[in-house]
Amino acid sequence: MLERALAAPHVSREAYAAREPAVRVGLINAQFDLRTSDAPVLLLLAGDDRIGVTEAVQLLHEWLDARHLDTHIFDQPTPEEREHPDYWRYWNALPARGRIGIFVGGWPIDVIGARAAERLETPGFERALQQAREFERTLAAEGTLLLKFWVHTEAAERARRLERARREPGRNWRVEPEDWSLHEIFSRLEDDVRHLLSVTDEPWAPWHVLDGRDDRTRDLALVETILTVLRERLDTGRPMQVPAPPLSLLPPRPQRLASVDLKPARQGVDYGARLDAAQARLAELSRRAREVGQATVLVFEGWDAAGKGGSIRRITKALSVRDYRVVPIAAPDESERAHHWLWRYWRQLPRAGTMLILDRSWYGRVLVERVEGYADTAAWHRAYAEIRAFEMQLVERGHVLLKFWLHIDPAEQLARFQARESTPYKKYKITDDDYRNRARWDDYVTAAEEMFARTDIPQAPWHIVAMNDKKAGRINILESICAALAARLYDQGVKT
Amino acid sequence: MLERALAAPHVSREAYAAREPAVRVGLINAQFDLRTSDAPVLLLLAGDDRIGVTEAVQLLHEWLDARHLDTHIFDQPTPEEREHPDYWRYWNALPARGRIGIFVGGWPIDVIGARAAERLETPGFERALQQAREFERTLAAEGTLLLKFWVHTEAAERARRLERARREPGRNWRVEPEDWSLHEIFSRLEDDVRHLLSVTDEPWAPWHVLDGRDDRTRDLALVETILTVLRERLDTGRPMQVPAPPLSLLPPRPQRLASVDLKPARQGVDYGARLDAAQARLAELSRRAREVGQATVLVFEGWDAAGKGGSIRRITKALSVRDYRVVPIAAPDESERAHHWLWRYWRQLPRAGTMLILDRSWYGRVLVERVEGYADTAAWHRAYAEIRAFEMQLVERGHVLLKFWLHIDPAEQLARFQARESTPYKKYKITDDDYRNRARWDDYVTAAEEMFARTDIPQAPWHIVAMNDKKAGRINILESICAALAARLYDQGVKT
């Protein structure tokens, strides 16, 4: 791929002058048309030629309308970025529909950088490439127009440039000291770069290698490629087709919910004492978590009125307000709808040492959105793999992730709805929707069972909690959190 | 103020039970009505009783609808927060219209904390209080409903609580080790706290002291105060009146623009060589700035077609893309309109070591918004003081701030409009608006002259640049930036 790009003849001054006006006007017009389309555009610029990348970005800044352009330069991760999974900074920076995002550097450079620092042996390198492929696939499947450019100048030519800059420092001030070490890295890792370019080159996330030896050739290839692809997307209105990953076979008729024992627990248990003990333990564990920077994500799903809110309050009562955030998930707002469906969850992830408590979650995609038809079949089919990839990033980063399904039976739910309606400040919690959802109980059971089966990863299994007996259920939840957090802290050598 | 709050009798269990339902329903309803109003609500909770503050916040989380609530806990500033002026984190976190923000801790605690760490002698303490007043005033003047609560428990009672927790650690797990040092600080600085509460207590930003000795008394005072004030604002629809700060007298008929020499510079200057030299110097300085974390803000204002874009490109050509961001300022979008008018500028401020280049800026408030009537007279009058306070925060934080007015005469502007219209990719830059603005030339001169006179602070004076001769103007700009940056780096002992 690298050689092919260097085989084409260079663009002459005359040819450039002849082709510039059309592509420049074309780009501005395409960007204007894009604003009312549903496509986010993501241009990734990277390469072994740092100055070439810089100049290419500056050309785009000059030719495009900067008001509808979001440029992000990804350098070494900041301390805050290091507290999160690797792709957090990319998710946060994704362009909205109708906008163009320019990412400079990005995940391919992270992978090469980790390889250069010898933090990645071959299995880790392959795993990192797989993550890159998963990320690019999910963006494209949700409609992002993704173009990747690699500015390439061969090692010998790079060395000549650096030598010239050393001899004439006043005239070659764009060369920086770090360019020497970049030159060394890219020379040493040329095979890894080739491998990366080849395994992450897909129709929905293609690489375009730009010839870094000649400015005009590089620039024209960049802008003409963008214009062609962007124009086609705008004119056809059709996003790139991304084949769906195969869905694995499910075990026949999983029935986890049907087997939950909803009978009240045995008499004689002192709930007050157990609740106190569990809260005291959680308070202690959360302080240790704060000290060592351990992040936790709690996901609460389950039937309406199953007791999510009450359970969450028993948890937060044991915590200092600075150590947690409760985020209720409702229908996405305008800005959330303008992004990939997972974007709003990535943005909520907890900082080091804190706990994110989600009252409903990304699982809405395969529950309410599936049952009510808000997501089409391909979208919620795809979501299982997307969710697994997302959660794997959380647990690989070291976060504790716990997923609770709060379970009650239909009769208990009805009794609770009726009780709510007679409490003035709880009335607003009951809407016609709640009664409509009751009518689709069996559809939700089907969706939940498939969700358990497809997203029950070893590091983050589903906890199905019997909640007909609220007090017993809450203690069960608190004790599960304490156990998981204590185990994780123990793994890190923290005494609790 | 502290004693007064403790003088009231405590609320009995019966009285609490009787008053709870009404205030709880009232709060939920008020929050619902708020969503369609134009008021952002900011509740600040702080105090010498940390556990009391925590419990008060948790009560609000329980009683209000969390989907329309933005809680921010302000602890020690993060590394990123330290790169910015002190109030950056508060500006970033401001609630939008229709939402309730809960700030825990916040600027009053920062001031007390700095005082406790002996980083603030009396003049610094008074300056910090003045900044707090300025911040609260500008929020309220733009319509924020601001309520501040101080949870107070006297030192003797705090000491008794800590002793109890030491004796019975299993039962008093809410007490943390840091509570001992907080107790010590608040006991030692009680006079400073009294002074702070008293000088920052204004009708538009009142303090309410809550009695931390009794949960029911504290909670009921909190929610009843919020409900009363919120209900009144919703029912009258009128924000609190904030008296305008007096405008100082202007010198008679300032005429800085009329005295600019717009004749072309003398012949025989080698522009190419001077441009090269200035860019090489800027490249070098920006690398030093990156190394030492020096941030820079460049503001470009001036007539349409005066050459802002071309000047900015000559600057960015000398920089690495990771070291700068160019932000063009146009009409505010929906989310920007839902916030204080300065909010969108605060969000753009540069990280340590980088340069923010603004193509138009906050000065739009006293230029286009004044001339076209988008801001009412009181708003743009107030803006001079708001801008000075904002810029003082930048320069006090150590940022380099340069403000350029690019000046041409009407004949030159007309010639440039006509030239643009015959260049295909520049055509989109010319609209009917541009011709309309020309008709108001004299109004813009009046506005610009008043702006120069009122915002020309010593640390960041206006640079008025003659741009009829573009090449000379650009070199003037580049050399001014180099001079200012070099001087600032020199002050820090950096060799350049």
Attribute tags:
496 residues, alpha/beta, 5-stranded parallel sheet, 52% helix, elongated
Architecture overview:
The structure is a homodimer of 496-residue chains. Chain A contains 21 helices and ten strands. The first copy, chain A, is α/β, with parallel strands linked by helices. Chain A is elongated, with a radius of gyration of 27 Å.
Annotate the secondary structure layout.
2 copies of one chain form a homodimer.
Chain A: H1 2-7, H2 13-34, E1 41-47, H3 50-63, E2 69-73, H4 79-82, H5 88-92, E3 100-104, H6 107-116, H7 122-141, E4 145-152, H8 155-167, H9 178-188, H10 190-199, E5 207-211, H11 215-236, H12 271-292, E6 296-302, H13 308-316, E7 324-328, H14 334-337, H15 343-346, E8 355-359, H16 368-371, H17 377-396, E9 400-407, H18 410-421, H19 432-439, H20 441-455, E10 462-466, H21 470-491
Parallel strand pairs in A: 1-3, 1-4, 2-3, 4-5, 6-8, 6-9, 7-8, 9-10
Helix pairs in contact in A: 2-11, 3-11, 6-7, 8-9, 12-21, 13-21
